[in-house]
Amino acid sequence: MAKTEYFYWVAPDNMTWDDFEKDFGTSTRMPPTGDYFSPCKRVPISNTKALVVFYALVSLLSLLGNSLVMLVILYRRRSCSVTDVYMLNLALADLLFSLTLPFWAVSKLKGWIFGTPLCKMISLLKEVNFFSGTLLLACISVDRYLAIVHATGTLTQKRHLVKFICLGIWGLSLILSLPFAIFRQAYKPYGSGTICYEVLGEATTYFRIILRGLSHMFGFLLPLLIMLFCYGSTLRTLFKARMGQKHRAMRVIFAVVLVFLLCWLPYNMVLFSDTLLGTHLIEDTCKRRNDIDQALYITEILGFSHSCLNPIIYAFIGQNFRHEFLKMLVNCGLIRKEFLTHHRATF
């Protein structure tokens, strides 16, 4: 999702908006311009080194965990379900998303030192995989809704059709992400370090509002509404019919969606507040800017950590995933078959 970066023209500690207007409004000097400039004292972000370590750890766990998920699903590809196809693509999206984290971590510490080509490439990779991840979760909810509420096999039994749906999701995600790759560049604003940012001159603010609208709609709001409707209907059907076995089979999917909401809902709420601030629908003050800046910093960490959490859910809640993983280890000769038999009897 499009991430807000605040870069301020740093004013003296005792300078107010009225002082700023008097200073520049009554002289021939031109103040700094752009949507990232403000006569506000910026509250510095602390513990940047700890943030770099955290992002590196999340990236490593995501690479290992999602690679393992993909390996298990591909190992049983002949018997994999439609949900498995979606989960495979979701793991791929999380894995590719995690590859961008080291770059953003270093940029927090030293600014964007990688140049414009990598700025465009990393931004495109991050946005494509964010959009595809959320849209894939929405597709999983629709698949479970059709299979349980309407008891239809139209999509659940035609894996080749689901493959085209996944390709469509990746294509739509690429289209939604292209503006970031086209207009982002390594840029050094007045009084700040180099950043990876969309720059269109006087149209920058307006353009970022449009991007925010796309992010809010396709990156969170639309998938959220689809998931709430589908899973609400699915849960109601399961409880009415007392379908215990299917309910147990749905635990992993429900956990994946719940973790998605816990990780990304706070960030999107803060990001929406920042959008309202940028459009001046809420009063723009120095305190409010700094509060939103700090809130974005905290909630972004929570959102980025989501890329490594799904494999943990599969490992602790997904009985079938654990069994298939152990079965794969048995076939590779890494563990004994008796261990697999004991595991099956235990669970």
Automatic annotation (TrEMBL):
Protein's cellular compartments: Cell membrane
Superkingdom as given in the UniProt entry: Eukaryota
Main subcellular location: membrane
TM region(s), chain numbering: 52-74, 86-105, 130-149, 161-183, 209-231, 252-272, 295-317
Quaternary structure (record): Interacts with IL8. Interacts with GNAI2.
Sequence ranges assigned to domain G-protein coupled receptors family 1 profile in this UniProt record: 65-314
Gene name of this polypeptide: LOC100769459
PROSITE patterns the UniProt entry points to: G_PROTEIN_RECEP_F1_1 (PS00237), G_PROTEIN_RECEP_F1_2 (PS50262)
Keywords assigned by UniProt, alphabetized: Cell membrane, Chemotaxis, Disulfide bond, G-protein coupled receptor, Glycoprotein, Membrane, Receptor, Transducer, Transmembrane, Transmembrane helix
Record-given protein name: C-X-C chemokine receptor type 1
